[in-house]
Give the backbone structure.
Amino acid sequence: MSMFLDTAKIKVKAGNGGDGMVAFRREKYVPNGGPWGGDGGRGGNVIFVVDEGLRTLMDFRYNRHFKAQSGEKGMTKGMHGRGAEDLMVHVPQGTTVRDAETGKILTDLIENGQKFIVAHGGRGGRGNIRFATPKNPAPEISENGEPGQERELQLELKILADVGLVGFPSVGKSTLLSVITSAKPKIGAYHFTTIVPNLGMVRTQSGESFAVADLPGLIEGASQGVGLGTQFLRHIERTRVILHVIDMSASEGRNPYEDYLAINKELESYNLRLMERPQIIVANKMDMPDSAENLKTFKKKLAENYDEFDELPQIFPISSLTKQGLSMLLDATAELLDKTPEFLLYDESEMEEEAYYGFDEDAPAFDISRDDDAAWVLSGDKLEKLFVMTNFDREEAVMKFARQLRGMGVDEALRARGAKDGDLVRIGNFEFEFVD
């Protein structure tokens, strides 16, 4: 059985920035030798790049963690550390990338070679050469590198096809695909012969071409998870025209018109916007007995229930086996494609706003809570980033961090909350005493 994977959850981690260095020149008449520590290098980004040679997300079944390299540390003589190379992750065309935590869509990758940064590398920490001032010409201060962005992503593949074939199992979708394209889908006289989407290219007699996707058969309840439909309904979303294939011979003992209503109900239940796509009804198996009579009944019922609409869907009687009516069907499909625009897959509310990798000015700089052991806990993106980038091996750096906390108003906020001299204050795993 061919393996097909169209969803995957992965974790990505961009590289950390390299640490800055504390170093001094050994030069006569320069106080303390003068600062000479360079900055750390930038951490590598994690970048998704579209590869038209990939067809599934199978590569992400066994490799779910992607981590870029960190930047090099700063060096003496004021030399910067080398920035890390970006990690390029190849994905198939039609991959939608969603933040697993927020559910927001980051990007929709559909063009070959298209790139998107899904995790940004951290900047390098500054060396002590950056902190020299007239008051402190030889500082023993450096920064640690900024942590790289880390996130969990949900990948979803929606195959790129202009036309989608939908219908109940065994109505002849795979056979139709095999005779109008060079695709060789598995064909059998049992339900769910097709268990993965099949793609093929059609070229009409007038020279027009378009891609057709044969999707696994739908059944009632598919949009709620019954059968295989819920797994593959997403692939219909990219199509611009739907060919609704119906077994007009009723060889399975079902009513063709009821089949038509049932499939449309599943499409509507899965995504209401699928009903915006124009449909062509393909009355298949017209070489079978009773098909002609069933088609008359079908057209009559369709007309009775379409009074509110301006025009009925086009109906093309065909036989995939005898190739009857195929050329007219393909010409009509190409003509409908020409005047049908692409459909917007996602609303703006579903898309993540343009990423901003600084600090949100409106967000509080820190938050204070109380732990079970009565310790005060400090948190917040800005505060935690300052903490991570502080080199606690250097006393000057520690004092600088204390001044930064005071400047942010942490001391005053702790006093207002009732903190007393000697109380324990915690930032992550780091603990210190509050001094009033």
Q: What stands out?
A: Residues 256-270 form the longest helix (15 residues). The two ends are 71 Å apart (CA to CA).
